[in-house]
Amino acid sequence: MNRRGAISFGIIILFIAGCYYAVKPLAAEIFASRGAYETALSLDPLNAKYHDAIGRKYLNKGRAGRDKAALRSAKEIYAKAIALSPANSAYRLGWGEAEGLLLLDKSNISEGELAAYVDNFKKAIELAPNNYYVNTTAGYYILLFRDRISARDKNFAIYRLMVALELNPRYANYVFSYVANGLGDFSLLHKITPNTSKWHKALNDFLRNIDKWKYRK
User: Is the pLDDT assigned to residue 117 strictly greater than 50?
Assistant: First the structure.
């Protein structure tokens, strides 16, 4: 091969390599959009982690637009994940989040549905009683139905949020905003806040940050 041919060949190789690395991310994106986890699940249907990944995708979609079909899919997929791995608290949280959002849009909620909903979160806490995220999520989602559940279940949820604060004091403002913005019930904040100067200061700082200091009692 002469010098000119070698240069031409080198240019072609560089061009091909450039195309490969330019197309590689796009190919990965297309593969993901076609449902990589669905493909993996078809090959390994007993893998609870794949159910979790797909369920999370549907749950995020359902939360974003209150898409009932997506939420129902998430609930169904997480039910399968729980059946495959009943000792995993995260799967119970996924099922509970989907079910909670579905129940919020339901006019005639039965006592059985509410009982199963609350019991699911209680089971998640039994599995991971010292997990901050489990306590926060369970407490918040149970309190979504604070006007429908028993006083015992309501106090249980409040206590779990208090436990979450004890587990991770640095996230106090997050828990407060989670409850205040999500539930709009400032009276609950005072119940969740322990009677110590540290927690009263955290509550005061939170209320000042959102310009609601006048609600301080």
Answer: yes
